[in-house]
Design brief:
Protein name: Alternate gene name: ipa-20r
Mean pLDDT: 94
Helix content: under 10%
Shape: globular
Number of strands: 4
Pfam families: DUF2196
Number of domains: 1
InterPro entries: DUF2196
CATH class: Mainly Beta
Distance between the termini: 20 Å
Organism: uncultured Sulfurovum sp
Length: 65
């Protein structure tokens, strides 16, 4: 399972890269800190949906050090 598909891998305040709904066709990644985890399921094939501290919502695609 790729990173971002398991809810247990995502923590509040973590720096992540997400793909916004409008960027799904291009795969453009937006970076920020997790403010809220929106997906209730324990895993999701397209990535866990989160809200960043900037207010942007998308699915987690990568972890940023």
């Amino acid at each position: 399972m790729a990173f971002g598909q398991k809810r247990s891998d995502i923590k509040y305040g973590m720096n992540v890269g997400i793909v916004l709904k409008e960027d799904q066709s291009t795969g453009y990644i937006t970076y920020g800190k997790v403010q809220k985890i929106l997906t209730n399921a324990s895993n999701h094939p397209h990535g866990i949906k989160v809200r960043l501290s900037s207010g942007e919502v998308g699915r987690v695609k990568e972890f940023v050090q």
